[in-house]
């Protein structure tokens, strides 16, 4: 067994429009310009064992709860940032549900690990065979959250390779 951490980040648009639960949190308000998160997991059998999401604006975490959808191929989205999350189901792996973020002095964060009540065990318990060197992710708001303009989100997943 080997553990590998994989991260990607994006800067959200220059607005502070409140998200509703179920909205896509992304780099662009235009569906065709949304760039999904990409995690270089390498080809082969993997299992996601932990995940972390951070954002650069640590001042307000009210309603800052998120869910990560994972895919075996790059997903196509129907809406841009702050629109209802909608994606093609083909090659959908599962979800990781994060608890509400915690404000630290330098950023805000939330962590999910196998065994936490906040984790959707269906996604993390799934052994996935990566046919490419990457898996992809989309971040979904799970609360009514008012973002800071142009804040940066970073998502890190830890995979077990076997």
Keywords:
single chain; 162 residues; mainly beta; Jelly Rolls; six-stranded antiparallel beta sheet; five-stranded antiparallel beta sheet; 1 helix; 11 strands; globular
3D architecture notes:
The structure is a single chain. The protein is mainly β and 162 residues long. The chain has a single domain (2-161), classed as Jelly Rolls (Sandwich), CATH 2.60.120. The chain is built from 1 helix and 11 strands. The strands form 2 sheets. Strands 1, 4, 7, 8, 9 and 11 form a 6-stranded antiparallel sheet that branches. It is globular.
Entry summary:
The chain is an all-beta fold and about 160 residues long. Helices cover about 0% and strands about 45% of the residues. Strand 7 and strand 8 form a beta hairpin.
The CATH topology name reads Jelly Rolls
How many β strands by DSSP? 11
Helix content: under 10%
> Beta fraction of the residues?
35-45%
Structural class, by secondary structure, is: mainly beta
Quickly count the helices: 1
Which value, in Å, is the CA radius of gyration? Answer: 15 Å
Order of helices and strands: EEEEEEEEHEEE
Which spans have pLDDT < 50 for at least 5 consecutive residues?
116-124
* Global geometry: globular
Largest sheet: 6 strands, antiparallel
């Amino acid at each position: 067994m080997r553990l590998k951490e994989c991260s990607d980040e994006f800067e959200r648009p220059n607005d502070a429009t409140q998200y509703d639960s179920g909205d896509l949190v992304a780099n662009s308000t235009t569906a065709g310009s949304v760039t999904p998160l990409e995690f270089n997991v390498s080809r082969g059998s993997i299992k996601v064992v932990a995940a972390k999401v951070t954002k650069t604006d640590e001042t307000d975490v009210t309603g800052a709860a998120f869910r990560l959808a994972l895919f075996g191929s790059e997903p196509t989205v129907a809406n841009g940032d702050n629109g209802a999350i909608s994606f093609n189901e083909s090659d959908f792996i599962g979800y990781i549900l994060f608890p509400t973020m915690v404000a630290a002095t330098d950023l805000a964060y939330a962590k999910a690990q196998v065994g936490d009540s906040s984790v959707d065990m269906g996604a993390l318990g799934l052994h996935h065979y990566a046919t490419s060197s990457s898996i992809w992710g989309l971040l979904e708001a799970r609360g009514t959250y008012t973002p800071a303009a142009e804040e940066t989100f970073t998502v890190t997943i830890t995979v077990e390779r076997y």
